[in-house]
Structure prediction request, 614 residues.
Amino acid sequence: MPIAPASALSEVTASDQALRRFLHGLPGVDPVGLEARAASLGTRSIKAEAKAYAIDLAISMIDLTTLEGADTPGKVRALAAKAVRPDPTDRTSPATAAVCVYPDMVETAKAALNGADVKVASVATAFPAGRASLEVKLADTRDAVAAGADEIDMVIDRGAFLAGRYLKVYEEILAVKEASGAARLKVIFETGELSTYDNIRRASWLGMLAGADFIKTSTGKVAVNATPANTLLMLEAVRDFRAQTGTQIGVKPAGGIRTSKDAIKFLVLVNETAGADWLDNHWFRFGASSLLNDLLMQRQKLATGRYSGPDYVTVD
Amino acid sequence: MSTVEQNRLSVFKTYKLYVGGKFPRSESGRVYEVTDSKGKWLANAPLSSRKDARDAVVAARKAFGGWSGATAYNRGQILYRVAEMLEGRREQFVREVAEAEGLSKSKASAQVDAAIDRWVWYAGWTDKIAQVMGGANPVAGPFFNLSTPEPTGVVAVLAPQESSFLGLVSVIAPVIATGNTAVVIAGEKNPLPALSLGEVLATSDLPGGVVNILSGRTGEIAAPLAAHQDVNGIDLTGAGDELAKELEIAAADNLKRVLRPGSAEYTADPGTHRMTAFLETKTVWHPTGALGASGSSY
Prediction:
């Protein structure tokens, strides 16, 4: 039953006070219960055909990421080639969802992908700290879009959020959303810096109200990145948001997911929390780089019956 | 006083695996009964699964860079330290070997002494093997041409089934002395000395993961190791003829170095063949220097 997006919630963003009242009126998170729920879902046993399905799904959900000061055009081209054909020895392996790079590398990535069905995501808005004026952030965004980015990964102003200036964060997301144009907008909360689960829930709703297409856990540049618990919390938020407004929003955990086992645990969380509608790379992504190699090794193990090793996947 | 001693509950030892410097139980949760030579129950040992083997390979691979990159001198010191620790727990090993192999105390003592001496002998080899196996090759050009032996990588070791301690030491020490890391499958019927060796290794400066010790059915654990693409060599000493043949075929897929089962006589001089079996030769060419107008300057 399609409802006009966020219509029921339109008045909550009318003023700073209304927004604060709404966000602080969200039910508090029970941290012990949340972590226990995430941990118990992590114990599901996924074997054989289900595992093969999960591995291929996880590969197709990866935003293959390189966000280093030392990124060279050569490295980005190698990454793009790997995104299109993750396992050169096995043509049946799916491509990843996207490559994720800094704005100045978007053009290189776009050219290297050469029309393949892999998107180019670009971080923007003074990633990773987000400490710049709105003009600079918007210019950064427009740059990336002009270079051909299909998706924009923005960071919120955590300083403003923690200081309680929610409307500032809200308006910044709105402005970046407008600057992104047709590109899908992923909003990064940097959950490791938000300090409480309540804040993560508030940030999720704030991002969704402002028109994010995806909410994303973290930049991968701080000590605590995606965890099952904070991802579970965000999955609950998108589930509840769709129930209220009819608008579906994606989730992207990023950083620290390195093994197939971890990735499959996240997929279980998605299925059990948000539901099977989210089990698609249009609605769920992994921000990762080394995860892909582990998935490929597991895939080779399932195909051949023998354990594979790092000598049989590309090193990036 | 004596009544207190009589009433004291016995403290049984839980034998556990040694993987990555830690002492986990088998991932499968299984154990099997280990008996002495007369069939009397001694302890329950972990019955490892193929996933334990996989975890052990991951640990061994992780340890390989540090161990193979350590100086030969440093490796020698660490191995000597292992021998010192073994000496300190001599009585325990004598008891375990006597029970496992049905030997008298004096014969078991002789085995343990020989094993400790063997460990010291290999410790001495760490910084000498390169001189013996490497060298300068004469070439027709103004180059130094030098060959040096390099460790192969992760080596799966099937410990001998009959000699539970001397045989065990005789197959582990040569593999790690040269800088390889090892995944060891203890003898199926007598794994207790091997599992206790793990406790010694853990307390003797040997980095975790350099030696990983699994107990269980040799055939069950060895099959995934032989086929594993990230294992570089396999020592088939503890495999019977039929199993050895099967494993050698599985090992061919990624061109593993294979050491076939050989003589079971461990008291004799071991020679260097167990070390050289898991070494590769690296050869480098280096210009001798600038050529003067009159030709070679050397």
Summary: Strands of chain B lie at 31-35, 41-46, 135-136, 143-151, 154-158, 181-185, 211-214, 233-235, 257-259, 279-287. Chain B touches chain A at residues 54, 57, 61, 224, 227-231, 250, 253 (CB under 8 Å).
